[in-house]
Amino acid sequence: MFYSIPPAMQARMQELEARDARERALGLPTAQRLRQVAPDTGRFLALMAAAAPAGTYVEIGTSGGYSTLWIALGARSQGRKVVTFEIDPQKVHLARETFHLAQVEDVVTVIEGDALAHLPALAQIAFCFLDAEKDLYAPCYDLVVPRLCPGGWLIADNVISHREVLQSLVDRALADPRVDALVLPLDRGLLLCRKG
């Protein structure tokens, strides 16, 4: 999978990586820059998406579409599609540009709006990546976990870098009998939850 990334997708990934690095180097405030995962986290998401069971693939927090591309890579390898939610109109525009340039519009649908309003309509979630505003993590967790199919995954980013905000959610997940959960110390920290 990693050795056969289509050239258009690879080019857009590299462009977004370079932009993210520039914006971080300039010290732009978080709200004014791309907020995307590191490449190793992207590769991990692709592997997890490729290994997820059949069902709905969801991303909450699209930003510029970088993590979506990795998820789409895994989803496409299994003949599946991804629905991604983004509330910021400027980031929706950038993500749509990303998906067009990377030639993944056949695999990815971006929905502009609050994921919390759309999640109740979903069922049989096989894969969900959560990387949004941190105050949304707990409500998203509450909506996603009951909708996970057996063997389905909820993966939440930033649980180490934002430990002071997210530790109570991590503790809840680790004690939740509906899922097997652990914290993976990859990049900013990932919470992995698998529905039994």
TrEMBL record:
Its EC number is 2.1.1.-. It holds the Pfam family Methyltransf_3. One of its GO terms (molecular function) is methyltransferase activity. This is Class I SAM-dependent methyltransferase. GO terms for biological process: methylation. Keywords: Methyltransferase, S-adenosyl-L-methionine, Transferase. It comes from Thermanaerothrix solaris. Gene3D superfamilies: Vaccinia Virus protein VP39. It comes from the Bacteria. InterPro entries: SAM-dependent_MTases_sf (IPR029063), SAM_O-MeTrfase (IPR002935).
